[in-house]
Amino acid sequence: MAAFLALFIFSIPLLSQSVAVLTPDAGAISGFAPKLFEGLREHLDVLDSSLVEAAYSASKHSDPYNMSSDEAKTAGAAIGCDFFLLIKTGSQRRTSFDRPEYYESFAVVYVVSSRTGRLVYWSIRNAEENSQAEADSKLLANAPNIARDLATTIKQTQKKEIVETRPANVEEPPLAGTVGAKNFVAPIPFRRIKPEYTTTAYLYNVTATVEILVDLDDKGSIIRTEIARWAGYGLDESVEKAVRSMNWRPAERNRKTLPMRVLLRYNFKKTEAKP
Q1: Sign of the C-alpha dihedral, residues 153, 159, 160, 162?
Q2: Which among 145, 194, 220, 252 could bridge 185 via Cys, Cβ 3.0 to 4.6 Å?
Q3: Which part of the chain is CATH 3.40.50.10610?
């Protein structure tokens, strides 16, 4: 009986994820977020939208779709949820070799962990039809399926976060003029590699900044990376791939190498090819 009770208590957090749905950008398809909200309520504890929006507005952040992990944790704490979803919708006319003209309606969905501030899931769900109205209707009809997929992702993510180990404490570069900066040489890559501006980011005209924390050992080998400001659209993965392809000279103090954590920042912006 005692063992059963202990198991029941332990399982409660896994069954009670509180989720907030936010639409910082009203977007072109106003009915999508409400449909997604209703679909999520069948699987998760979804917080009241009016209360969520008020709490979210009180938190400070630079760009809702390009938050740092610290900004995201602050927003999640203000809302009082385990995860929050950021929704952006839009429509645009497209052309291709196969189809001279068609319309795409899309929903960009971010799932953010309030505990870690990480972007734990990101996707674009779209619908293509000959008219914008048809494309909108097709996307709206798919909202319940999208909600079901998101609920599964959130439940799986929470289980992983519960058993996740904390990263080891690693020294960060000291501020100039401080005692720690004396005889200190920061780590640098032997060759810098530029992350790719992804095709997905290009198609949706994304401007964003990605920041990544990199833990290096005393030999300059990468032992851990973590995205500290996320953007989606494949840009986070592009940054991590580029950084992990670099070889590093380790940090030094008094000519002795030492482990070090560094923060790298990459800015992305769409540029048109010159004719």
Answers
A1: positive
A2: 252
A3: 14-163
